[in-house]
């Protein structure tokens, strides 16, 4: 029995070879297109920036511009520090902005549902990143 190109065994062997080659190419392409892994970063500046941003908006709404400006200044400082931390960890500036917005949304939800959690975050922010006395 001689093998010919029309033999079913030859066809099956070629088919298996093509499948194996396709799997190899697909696997190598999947490895080459993996997303970069971001390193861990200190997210406290982002969280506290969101907290101070909420305070700035609250004092602005209450028409207390001196306090609103102080909290807004602290927000800007912490926001930039948080962005630098995320960029150092492999993120982009847009991803950092999105993360800050997520923290702001989270704090807004927590303020409505779990005030004790917000007090805990407020204590941490005031301890780690104090705002100069602005009550005079």
Helix content: over 70%
Order of helices and strands: HHHHH
Into which percentage range does the β-strand content fall? under 5%
How many helices? 5
- Number of discrete domains: 2
Distance between the termini: 103 Å
Topology of this structure?
Blueprint: H1 8-32, H2 44-61, H3 65-88, H4 93-113, H5 115-128
Helix pairs in contact: 2-3, 2-4, 2-5, 3-4, 4-5
How would you explain this protein's 3D organization?
This protein has 136 residues and is mostly helical. It folds into two domains: 1-34; 44-128, no CATH class. It is 75% helix and 0% strand. The chain has helices spanning 8-32, 44-61, 65-88, 93-113, 115-128. Helix 2 (44-61) runs antiparallel to helix 3.
Looking at this protein, list some descriptive labels:
136 residues, mainly alpha, 2 domains, elongated
Summarize the structure.
With 136 residues, the protein is an all-alpha fold. It is built from five helices and no strands.
């Amino acid at each position: 029995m001689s093998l010919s190109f029309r033999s079913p065994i030859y066809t099956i062997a070629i088919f298996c070879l093509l499948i194996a080659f396709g799997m190899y190419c697909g696997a190598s392409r999947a490895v080459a297109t993996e997303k970069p892994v971001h390193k861990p970063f200190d997210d406290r500046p982002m969280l506290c920036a969101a907290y101070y941003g909420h305070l700035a908006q609250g004092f602005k709404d209450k028409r207390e511009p001196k306090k609103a400006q102080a909290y807004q200044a602290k927000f800007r400082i912490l926001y930039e520090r948080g962005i630098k931390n995320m960029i150092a960890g492999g993120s982009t500036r847009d991803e950092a902005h999105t993360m800050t917005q997520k923290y702001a949304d989270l704090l807004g939800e927590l303020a409505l549902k779990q005030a004790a959690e917000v007090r805990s975050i407020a204590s941490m922010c005031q301890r780690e990143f104090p705002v100069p006395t602005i009550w005079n």
